[in-house]
C-alpha cells in the first residue's frame, strides 16, 4: 500500500510472525493516535481493532521489513476518515489554499513572535497542553501528532496523509502557530502578563 | 558571490536564500542534516528572535511528547484483535 510494492506471498507462519513482530509493537502509538483523532477511548479501541484487522487482511500488500509503522498509521487514518469521520459530521474544512498563500507570503518573517514565555509553559503541569492539542482542528492536530509525538519525517507524513510534502510543511507551520495561540490564552488565564500573541 | 564565501546549507535548489522562519521550521520538524543544524546553531548566536522562538517552540514540542503520549492501549485489546483474526481465518 504505502510502498506500492508488488503483492507478497506469505505462509501462515510468516503472517503470524509479521503480525507479532512488526505490527503489534506499534499498538500503543496506534491507540494514542486513535484517541487523539476521535477524542474518545472506546472509539479509539474500535479504530485500532479495525486497523489491525485490515492490516492482517491486506498483509500481502505489506513488504516484510519495510516501514510497518507508517503503513499502519496510514490505514488507521483512512479508517478514521472513511468509517468514523463520516458519522460525526465535521462541517469546518480548513481552507488550505489560504494556508499555502500565507506560508509562502513575505508576511511570515514579519510575524510577531508570541511573547509566550518558556516559564509559563513549564507551569502548565495539568492538562493544558493536551487540551490545547485536542482543541485544534483534526487536520492540524494530525500533523502535530505525526511529527512531534511520533517523529515521522515529511516524506512519511506525505504518504500517510496522501498530501504533497509542501502541504505537510505548511500545515505543520500553521498548526504550530495555532497551538501557540491556544497556549498563550492559557498562560493569560493563569495570570501571566505579556502573553499576547 | 557571497554564496561561495558563506554557503548556507539551507539554500534551496532554486538558489533562494531561506528566511529565518523557514530554517526554524526545518529545525523544529527535525528535517535537517548535521550541517544545517550546525549552521542554525551558529545563526542563533546572532539572531535573538530565532533564539527565543526556537527555545519556546522546542519547549512546546518536548511538552507535547511528555504530556500527550501517555496511556498504553488497554491490555485486553491485543487479545480481542487476536480472537477476531482467529474467527476470520477459521
Q: Give the % helix of chain A.
A: 55-70%
Biggest sheet descriptor of chain B = none
How far apart, in Å, are the first and last alpha carbons of chain A? 42 Å
What best-fitting shape of chain A do the alpha-carbon axes yield? elongated
Record field, number of beta strands of chain A? 0
Largest sheet of chain A: none
What is the largest interface, and how many residues per chain?
A-B, 47 and 36 residues
Distance between the termini of chain B: 71 Å
Structural class of chain B: mainly alpha
- Counted by DSSP, the helix tally of chain B is 5
Q: Share of helix among residues of chain B?
A: 55-70%
Q: What is the averaged pLDDT score of chain A?
A: 85
> So what's the overall shape of chain B?
elongated
Helix tally of chain A?
Answer: 10
Q: Please trace the helix and strand order of chain B, writing H or E for each element.
A: HHHHH
Structure description:
The complex is a heterodimer of chains A (197) and B (90). Chain A is mainly α and 197 residues long. Helices cover 63% and strands 0% of the residues of chain A. Chain A is built from 10 helices and no strands. The longest helix of chain A is centred in the C-terminal third of the chain and has 25 residues, at 165-189. Chain A starts with 11 loop residues before the first helix and ends in an 8-residue tail after the last helix. The model of chain A is unreliable at 105-113 (pLDDT under 50). Chain B has 90 residues and is mainly α. Chain B has helices at 2-5, 20-28, 34-45, 48-67, 75-89. In chain B, helix 2 packs parallel to helix 4 (48-67). The model of chain B is unreliable at 1-5 (pLDDT under 50). Classes of the chains: A mainly alpha (197), B mainly alpha (90). At the A-B interface, helix 2, helix 3, helix 6, helix 7 and helix 8 of A face helix 2, helix 4 and helix 5 of B.
List keywords for this structure.
heterodimer; A: 197 residues; mainly alpha; elongated; B: 90 residues; 67% helix; 0% strand; disordered N terminus
